[in-house]
């Protein structure tokens, strides 16, 4: 390890030592938050909570371009959060990564300070914040980082932890991307670490094969009753969302809602291949019907502001582009009461 690596390790250790056991809950946070009951996410009255979400502040804490798009998104976060909330969004997913915390340009102390600020901005508005950790593989250090975040935000009922975005498919040992046995072992360690940190909020869990495939979760249980499973879906270059794709979603994750709480944790138009917003409209219409008739628990869209075809907004002023308007019309504005 070089001098810069040793310095990063020292700073990371110092940041851990400076952490409070948990951050205070904002006065506007829900008193009891949300919990899983059977196959639903419910509030303190027992009413189902349907996620209408978006990934925001992307790039500042994970995803690259920390001081480009990431800084721009952080500086404009309050404007963008207000715009999202005004369209019915009730959950913000913020991507974080152990590698960015430990070795990134912000440094561990500034990284956590800015993340705390985003948690405050989101939850003071009464929205749930999903802290989505990824891009760091699986190791003891990553588990410890997730546990630290879980303890740090344990006192805020509007913060949910997702410990492992697209497990073993983006970083780490990619040979395990589709391995259910390895998935079960690693995700159990994350879940246990979160609970050992005193965090009792719902945990969002991604599945195998970039979380496109969740169909075997019953055979590989994680031993915790307060889990929300998060499927991912992209257009893969398709112009429309057709019956064959609907059948694929049914088989891979949508039919699980008879027994488990499932959300679409990420949907976008671009993942190396671009699909038009017409594909997004078709998928969102499918998801709307899934929520209404099969007890699906909602959708998180990617991404509020970014440099590729997933961006929902114009970089210069934050106004909605075609993908953003599609999300508003086909899901965020839909009533599920």
Could you walk me through the main structural features you see in this protein, from its secondary elements to its overall organization?
The chain is of the alpha/beta class and 337 residues long. The chain has a single domain, classed as TIM Barrel. It is built from 10 helices and 10 strands. The longest helix has 18 residues, at 277-294. The termini are far apart. Residues 1-15 and 20-29 have low confidence and may be disordered.
Question: Topology of this structure?
Answer:
Layout: H1 3-18, E1 35-37, E2 40-42, E3 51-55, H2 69-75, H3 77-86, E4 91-96, H4 98-103, H5 108-124, E5 128-134, H6 140-152, E6 159-165, H7 180-196, E7 203-206, E8 227-234, H8 243-252, E9 262-268, H9 277-294, E10 298-301, H10 322-332
Return Rg in Å: 19 Å
Strand content: 15-25%
How far is the N terminus from the C terminus? Answer: 56 Å
Q: Sketch the topology as an H/E string, one letter per element.
A: HEEEHHEHHEHEHEEHEHEH
What's the total count of β strands? 10
The side-by-side strand order for the widest beta sheet comes to 6-5-4-3-10-9-8-7
Count of individual helical segments: 10
Mean pLDDT score: 92
Write out the CATH superfamily name: Glycosidases
CATH topology: TIM Barrel
Which percent bin holds the helix content?
25-40%
The second-level CATH architecture is Alpha-Beta Barrel
What sort of overall outline do the alpha carbons produce when their principal axes are compared? globular
Structure class? alpha/beta
Largest sheet: 8 strands, parallel
The stretches of 5 or more residues where confidence is low (pLDDT under 50) are: 1-15, 20-29
Q: Which class in CATH terms?
A: Alpha Beta
Domain count: the total is: 1
